[in-house]
Design goal:
Rossmann fold; four-stranded parallel β-sheet; alpha/beta; 12 helices; globular
Length: about 250
C-alpha cells in the first residue's frame, strides 16, 4: 500500500499549457513525484475532431499507466471535455479534469460581461454547454483557434500576439468586461498580454481548483505521498528534446 502512495502522479496536456497546472501542483504537493507528458507532437487538440482527441488522450493515459501512476490529471480543458468521462469509465484510478472557470467568474461578475476564452473544441462540447446553462449569465464565449500556438512557441508577448488579441477583443473594447476566463491551460502563460487589453478585468483560470480537487481525491483514496517523501518532476513529450527544455523553463517561470 505504502508503495502505491509513493507512485507518481501523471499530468498531461496537448503541449506545454499543462505546465501552468503542474506549477500549482508542485507548490501544493511538494512531497509528490510527477510525470508530466506534453503531447506537443500531436498539438493542437482544440481544433481536432472529438474522436481524435479521445484517442490521443487515451494513448497518453496508457503511457502514464505503463509507468504505474496512482492518479492522472488532465491538465487540458479540451481533452477533459472530449475524453474525461470515457477515460473514467474505462480506467480505475482517480482521473481529475478541468473546465473553464465560469463558476468562479459568475461569483465575481456584477453587471458587466465575462469573456470566456477557450479552444473551439471546448466551446463546442456538451460539457461546456452544461456549464453555460448553469453559470452563463453575462458570458460571451470566444473560441480562439491559433491562440495556444503562441504559448506553445514561447511567443508570450510581441506584435503578432497583440494583433491577434486586438482583433479578438475588438467588439468588446468599450464594454464593461469584468472578468476573463482563461479556459485553456496554454492561455495562462499569455496572462500578461491578455491583461493589457483589459487592465481592470479579473483574469481567472481553473488551475488552483484543479489541484485542490487532486488533493481531495488522493485523500479520499488514501494515496497522498507520506510527508517527507522526496518530490520530483519528470518531463516527457511526443516531440523533440527541445520541448523538454522548454517545459523545464516554463515550470520555473513566475
Ligand atoms: N491546453 C489545452 C486546453 O486547456 C488545449 C490546447 C490545444 O491543444 O488546442 O484546452
Amino acid at each position: 500500500m505504502d508503495e502505491h502512495k509513493n507512485a507518481p502522479i501523471g499530468i498531461f496536456d496537448s503541449g506545454v499549457g499543462g505546465i501552468s497546472v503542474l506549477r500549482e501542483a508542485v507548490k501544493l504537493l511538494p512531497d509528490e513525484k510527477f510525470i508530466f507528458y506534453g503531447d506537443t507532437g500531436n498539438a493542437p487538440y482544440g481544433t481536432k475532431p472529438r474522436e481524435t482527441v479521445v484517442s490521443l488522450s487515451e494513448n497518453v493515459v496508457k503511457r502514464l499507466l505503463d509507468q504505474h501512476v496512482k492518479a492522472i490529471v488532465i491538465a487540458c480543458n479540451t481533452a477533459t471535455s472530449a475524453a474525461a468521462a470515457y477515460l473514467r469509465g474505462k480506467y480505475d484510478l482517480p482521473i481529475i479534469g478541468m473546465e473553464p472557470a465560469l463558476k468562479p467568474a459568475s461569483l465575481i461578475r456584477k453587471k458587466g460581461i465575462v469573456l470566456s476564452l477557450a479552444t473551439p473544441g471546448t466551446i463546442a462540447g456538451e460539457k461546456y454547454a452544461h456549464l453555460v446553462s448553469l453559470y452563463g449569465e453575462g458570458v460571451v464565449s470566444l473560441p480562439c483557434p491559433g491562440l495556444m500556438e503562441f504559448a506553445e512557441n514561447g511567443e508570450m508577448d510581441g506584435e503578432r500576439l497583440n494583433e491577434y488579441l486586438k482583433k479578438l477583443f475588438l467588439p468588446y473594447r468599450d464594454q464593461p468586461v469584468e472578468a476573463i476566463v482563461l479556459g485553456c491551460t496554454h492561455y495562462v502563460f499569455l496572462r500578461d498580454a491578455i491583461q493589457q487589453h483589459f487592465p481592470d478585468a479579473a483574469l481567472i483560470d481553473g488551475n488552483l481548483g484543479t489541484v485542490r480537487q487532486l488533493i481531495r481525491r488522493l485523500q479520499e483514496v488514501n494515496l497522498l505521498a507520506p510527508e517527507g517523501s522526496i518530490g520530483s518532476v519528470l518531463f516527457q513529450t511526443s516531440a523533440g528534446t527541445e520541448t523538454i527544455e522548454k517545459m523545464k523553463r516554463l515550470l520555473e517561470m513566475k
